[in-house]
Automatic annotation (TrEMBL):
<protein>
    <submittedName>
        <fullName>Monoamine oxidase A</fullName>
    </submittedName>
</protein>
<keyword id="KW-1133">Transmembrane helix</keyword>
<keyword id="KW-0472">Membrane</keyword>
<keyword id="KW-0812">Transmembrane</keyword>
<feature type="transmembrane region" description="Helical">
    <location>
        <begin position="21"/>
        <end position="40"/>
    </location>
</feature>
Length: 48
């Protein structure tokens, strides 16, 4: 019999999201950035 060896996961394997999760994060941040740019462009965002 083959002895059971525990699979070790690296930091990145444990903490990186899946591809679908990564795409959701990229899409969300892109949408927020575009919205902020549009608000800034039309002077709806007060400059601090």
């Amino acid at each position: 019999d083959v002895p059971a060896v525990e699979i070790t996961h690296t930091f990145w394997e444990r903490n990186l999201p899946s591809v679908s999760g990564l795409l959701k994060i990229i899409g969300f941040s892109t949408s927020v950035t575009a919205l902020g740019f549009v608000l800034y462009k039309y002077k709806l965002l007060p400059r601090s």
